[in-house]
Design the sequence.
């Protein structure tokens, strides 16, 4: 009798109630698989989320960009979109919605913006879909929604920070105007470089910080959306297509949600704590750059340096946690190892982790305190050996690293890296040949407004002996 009822329920859910389209809609909206819709929503709600929410009308305020985004994206015409509504939670309800409970205690989804974090998607499901998609399942969907939306908001904020920093660089490259003021109609005097904010070298350092943050956030997004959600959803569809029983269907959906919670790190308190610190660093950096409004003179360089150092410490802590054998074995996922490899682009993270906390600090720039990714001067001895393959970002004698993940390198750095690569290859092919130490010098023009006192840039490389 029980088996007969279970088969009838399966037939009712899958055949008549439209379970598969409902699960696809949950993936599209709760798990942000419909990326164009959510990208449009963040663009439309940017002005709204830049200010504190108006508690009396916040749900109605959110409904406007939500409906506009549907009209501007692939969600237009989706018959299940009306089942979803953004809702702003308050008080104890907001606290409990993002609580993750497990056998050893509880913790929260990593927060980003206290003002706008309590957003959930309210889902209205027709009977009998509620038999499978109950309150507990929807609460877990919303915990995942909170994490994914915060990652997407960070990515959008870092894109805006890139535009602001590029505007500052262009402003600093403009030649200074005459001391007497404007010289013609419609022209305005450009103040001297010293009055226009930090030197271009320090702005490049800020861009490197932004690139490092974007490197981590983008890889986390890619891992969650593709390697976790899409893979688990494909496995769920395969299970649903083969089972003929409501109990099997329930187990398959429970396994799907449990896999998402584990592989998205929400079930691991230590990883959630590190992610929360990183989210705070990214939010502080975006707010710092955004408040400057493209004006380099309004940029707090010292605060940016502190954020940079903190983010490097927290990103290395995240890498160490993810790459630990215990985590890799407990997750049982090849995609986590792939994420670790992507985060450790060019062995950069591993090298920083091996060098210890002393390597994560405020370096020096010519002309004053800067924000180099390491201390001044080249790394030598065991630390240099730990840097690993080419492109790790070895510092030059100005304390700048030019090849951190996502940062690229300038012409001198690329030339030095090519010579280093050729040297290592030569040494491997000719182990008995001696290696001769060379010092390469390359002239570089001074940037307008730069306070760097030297016009020569030198770097140490090793070349095979003749």
Sequence:
């Amino acid at each position: 009798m029980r088996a007969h009822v279970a088969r009838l329920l399966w037939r009712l859910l899958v055949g008549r109630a439209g379970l598969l389209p409902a699960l696809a809609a949950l993936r599209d909206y709760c798990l942000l698989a419909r990326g164009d819709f959510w990208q449009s929503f963040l663009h439309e709600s940017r002005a709204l989320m830049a200010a504190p929410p108006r508690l009396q009308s916040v749900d109605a305020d959110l409904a406007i960009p939500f409906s506009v985004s549907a009209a501007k994206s692939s969600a237009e015409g989706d018959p299940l979109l009306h089942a979803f509504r953004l809702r702003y939670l308050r008080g104890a309800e907001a606290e409990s919605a993002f609580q993750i409970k497990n056998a050893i205690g509880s913790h929260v989804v990593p927060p980003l913006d206290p003002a706008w974090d309590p957003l959930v998607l309210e889902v209205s499901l027709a009977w009998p879909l509620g038999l499978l998609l109950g309150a507990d399942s929807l609460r877990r969907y919303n915990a995942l929604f909170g994490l994914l939306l915060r990652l997407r908001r960070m990515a959008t904020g870092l894109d805006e920070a890139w535009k602001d920093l590029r505007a500052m660089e262009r402003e600093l490259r403009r030649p200074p105007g005459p001391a007497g003021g404007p010289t013609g109609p419609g022209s305005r005097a450009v103040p001297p470089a010293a009055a226009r904010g930090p030197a271009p070298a320090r702005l490049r350092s800020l861009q490197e910080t932004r690139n490092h943050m974007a490197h981590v956030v983008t890889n986390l997004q890619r891992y969650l959306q593709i390697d976790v959600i899409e893979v688990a959803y494909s496995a769920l569809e395969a299970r649903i297509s083969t089972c003929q029983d409501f109990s099997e269907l329930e187990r398959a959906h429970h396994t799907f949600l449990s896999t998402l919670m584990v592989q998205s790190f929400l079930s691991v308190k230590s990883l959630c704590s590190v992610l929360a610190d990183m989210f705070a660093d990214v939010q502080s950096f975006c707010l710092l750059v955004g408040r400057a409004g493209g004006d380099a003179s309004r940029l707090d360089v010292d605060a940016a340096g502190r954020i940079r150092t903190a983010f490097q410490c927290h990103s290395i802590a995240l890498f160490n946690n993810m790459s630990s054998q215990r985590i890799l074995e407990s997750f049982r996922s090849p995609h986590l190892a792939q994420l670790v490899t992507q985060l450790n682009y060019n062995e950069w993270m591993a090298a920083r982790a091996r060098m210890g906390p002393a390597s994560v600090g405020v370096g020096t720039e010519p002309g004053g305190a800067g924000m180099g990714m390491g201390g001044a001067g080249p790394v030598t001895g065991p630390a240099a050996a730990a840097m690993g393959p080419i492109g790790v970002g070895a510092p030059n004698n100005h304390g700048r690293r030019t090849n951190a993940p996502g940062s690229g390198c300038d012409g001198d750095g690329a030339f030095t890296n090519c010579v280093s690569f050729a040297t290592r290859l030569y040494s491997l092919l000719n182990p008995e040949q001696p290696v001769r130490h060379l010092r390469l010098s390359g002239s570089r023009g001074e940037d307008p407004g730069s306070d760097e006192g030297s016009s020569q840039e030198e770097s140490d490389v090793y070349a095979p002996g003749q």
